[in-house]
Amino acid sequence: MSTSTLVTLPDQSTAKIPKVNFLNQENGLLSWILTLDHKRIAILYLITTVFFFMIGGAAAAVIRLELLTPAGDLVAADTYNKLFSIHGIIMVFFFLVPIAPAVLGNFLIPLMIGARDVALPRVNLLSWYLFVIGGCFELYMIIFGGVDTGWTFTTPLSTHYVNTHVVGAAMGIFIAGFSSILTGINFIVTIHKMRAPGMTWFRLPLFIWSFYATSIIFVLATPVIAIAMVLIVLERVVGIGVFDPARGGDPILFQHLFWFYSHPAVYVMILPGMGVISEVVSTFSRKRVFGYTAVAFSSVAIAVFSFFVWAHHMFIMGISNYSALVFSLMTMLVAVPSAIKVFNWSATMYKGSIHFDTPMIYTLGFLGLFTIGGLTGVFLATLGMDIHLTETYFIVAHFHYVMVGGMVSALMAGIHFWWPKITGRMYPESLGRLAAIILFIGFNLTFFPQFILGYLGMPRRYWSYPPEFQVLNVFSSAGATILAIGYLLPFLYLPWSITYGEIAGSNPWKATGLEWQTQSPPLMENFPEIPIMDHEAYDYDWLERHQQEVASV
Amino acid sequence: MSETASTTHGVLAGAQHEHPPYQRHHFSSVAQQFDASNFAMWLFLLTEIMFFGGLFTSYLIMRNWYYPAFVAGSHQLSIFLGTTMTAVLIISSFTMAMAVWCAETGRKRDLILSLSLTLLLGVVFLCLKGFEWHGEWVEYHVPGLRFSVENFVNPASDPQVFKEYHDKPLATDMAENVGQYFFLYFVMTGMHALHMIIGVSVLTFMILRARAGDYTSGHVTFVENFGLYWHFVDIVWIFLFPLLYLISRHS
Amino acid sequence: MNYISPVLWQFLRKWLTHFALFPPEASKMASQMDALFFFLVLVSLVGLTVVVLIVVGSSMAYHHRRHPQAVQIEGSTLLEATWTIIPLGLFLVMFVWGALLYFRVYTPPANAMNIYVVGKQWMWKAEHPGGQHEIDALHVPIGRPIQLTLISQDVFHSFSIPAFRVKREAIPGRYTSVWFEATQVGTYHLFCTQYCGTNHSQMIGEVVVMTPDDYQKWLAGSTSGDSLAQDGERLFASLSCNACHNPTAAARGPNLVGVYGSHLTLTSGQTITVDEAYLRSAILDPSEHVTQGYAPIMPTYQGQVSEEGVIALVEYIKNLNSDYRIQQTLNTTGFSPNIEEKQAPAGKATAAPGEVKQ
Fold first, then answer.
1. For residues A302, A304, A307 and A313, what is the CA-based torsion angle, rounded to 10 degrees?
2. How many angstroms separate the CA atoms of A218 and A180, rounded?
3. Which end of chain A is more exposed for a tag (fewer CB within 10 A), N or C?
4. pTM, entire model
5. What is the pLDDT of residues A20-38, one digit of tens each?
6. C45 touches chain A (CB under 8 A)
7. What CATH number labels C228-341?
8. CB A48: neighbour CB atoms within 10 A?
9. With a cut of 50, which residues of chain B have pLDDT below it?
10. Å from B75 to nearest chain C CA?
């Protein structure tokens, strides 16, 4: 692979980080925890979500270690159950759901549409505090004994049969849910009302479209899980019997309420990643995204369809055969917009002028892993096949391919891509590429064997397993150590680069977005004066003309 | 806008500009600010609809399954009390609408009066609700905490209701399901009451600010948005009232 | 082999002998499921290859050194329509194929032999019609359709036999069913795949597939004496069901002879077909299932009869085809119109299996 990159850095001997920027404009702890600036709130979110990622990751490490041997010999069965429950709850509700919208979205949406801030800065800060309070509930739950219901809180197990901190965990999710709702409202209002002059809907970067779709899901789906969690808490504390079949209740009702949120939530986790990929593919191919309208509308289509597929989590749970038909069909339909996107991104590279910097390598990894993740999702949507595959490691592998292979790759691409904008400095390029490649290899080694395990029938959430599954499990655990290195490298070099990285200048990637037309790191209110958008998104000819103009002045 | 009071600020050289004090700095005009917060309020109400929607759906499903139990349960509620509460809320919606109008036309004294009336009616509603809940507690209708099937297995044990409806006795298994009715009754009215309590607290805060003249100098966004919220809470009750009190009234 | 440490060598050997990519195909359904799986894998491979070819091809052909100036392309409706319609078509094929298979797995044939399975934390109990009970094991004959009627006594469980490619959730409070026809003699894994609490991973067992002869021998060797229906008969008598459900003219409840499979009109005006699920709920929630013309006087048996007891009762009622059987129960308990004063014959009624002792 070539070592030459797209980066055009200013002359490092004379370059300076702008004297005034959002990082140094105000000082002291108070100026951070009481800040109304969307960029600072994004950084607060980054720190908290990364903290939760470490907890979830540590749980995953112990899980993989336990599964090295068929017998359950490292931790007790109860401990193992708590570990995977904590891993699921933390990673889903406190890492995957918030990180992309709250970190990348908060930082970039106002910059990209040419606004000084999000529409409701105080609500934005409030939503961070709600998230932190929800997180504290989870920490309390973990420290004082954990919870062993799995992240799905299946009733009546969670309401009548376990004796762990279900109430604490549910309250944490309930509160963090309001943080999501407020973030969603804030983004929708910002995108509707705060666009710069000339920024029409079809000039918006595709990143904005996918975050808009994400926000719709936040606003419409999250209240339903709030209700589901309230019912769980009431059932446990007061014992009203709404999920208890012996008292006229129905445990399936909970499944409906839970998945009505949690399936759309899956798209909350992947849609922002899709937005990042659109930006990165375009920038590093020096070419506009192929079929802008199709990519934009497919995001909205995914958000809309995602509300009509929830019962595909219940194909073997005794829903009627005919409703299973409808939900299978709807699930097939929701796969189509994702397919369109993958093909459009691939076509964007055709006849481009492609550079292989770190974000692009992550993106290529994303394309492969997300395609596998998406296609195996179709396996599960196929009714008959689902009978054999559901509740096995196949499903574990499938959603990790989408959530970790897809989303975390996209997230890494995004963080590397906008790192110079956030900090004003470059990360070390060769280390970045190395980490991206290690992540890709480690990920496949960890999760591909799980597809085979799943077809062999190994059930998920098993603490011990029959010995013939050991080979593949050892591969998987070995891969997990490589994957861990892939994650740890950025944890080391990114903080290093804040002080020692090369100064990036305002537009190191020669990208077209408005966020690149202002200084890095940006000012407290983003732009000295509100820009006027007079060209389409991804217009590289405009960028060239613009740069010449600036140079000649 | 011809404000006398205007603020000049800006940390950056060249970013000096003037705008009325209530305009938040990141908006380019008051109109944009109003549009944005108004739109946000509507979105918030949308999530609220989804929130109550989950409960309404559960209620309708359960009612369909356990029809006789739900009829017996709703006979326990007093129509008179329900109607009174509805009337109180509708009047409070009217006074709230008056408050918005007063704010828009800059009538400070009338604004404070309308807000205080709204507050008063809100508190009256909550008291009536508390009274009704107390009644259910006394009669052992609180599932999980204090519940007995006596009134449904043997309707004559509750002479007041029996005189009016002549309910047939329910079998024990069906009578247990009245618990589901009361559970949903408490969750739904409880969630509604929670919204009322939040509304009443905000109203108190607004009255204080209205006395300082904050809403009568052109900045009415907050009053208008709160008005939307208050009407929404009212509308939720307009759905709850027939579902819980009226729907099984034929005798 | 001296240069490989013996431990590592043992490990490698163990791996290689235990390594498999596919579970055994031991039922009629398995080969059909595998065919669909191969089709899905094939389509996925083609799809993945197309994407990888475009991406890798473009990466090589349009590397910025070879292709310094990008050609701006707006898009192409024709191309986009192509890659919308082709995946959609393929997905629809998968949908139809999958749906056919799903209906096949979850629609047991009429001649299937019914085995009841009760799941509870953390064991599976199978109940054969002949009264054989087994725990964490299931013995079935080859070449005969077997229907499993599943229910859970506590939380959700899921009954999975990977070698047969079938799985079904066992749900508290309602029957679910699944069927298979075993084709290969052998012992296969039985898993609980729905997370059900502490010992979820110990809720496993084995499915033993036998030739019909061996199966007959096994049946004879593990019978407990009474068939499931006979257990039900005892329970029917000891719970005094026969006090009301009997063929006499004074009976206060409907006669249950031949009721299974018939159409009933309920007091609510609904017409239903009597199946296992109906019988179960009529025992546990009687007031919602009163036959037209009868008073709602039946008490609920919720909490008084275990799931196994309900199964025995259901099996008994299913097999009731003459008044003679009910007469028998009347004789054993001594029919008395005033059941409150009736004294249960010592040792008989109290010992009936399936009754929850309080």
1. -20
2. 6
3. C
4. 0.89
5. 899 888 888 889 999 999 9
6. no
7. 1.10.760.10
8. 20
9. 1-15, 251
10. 20
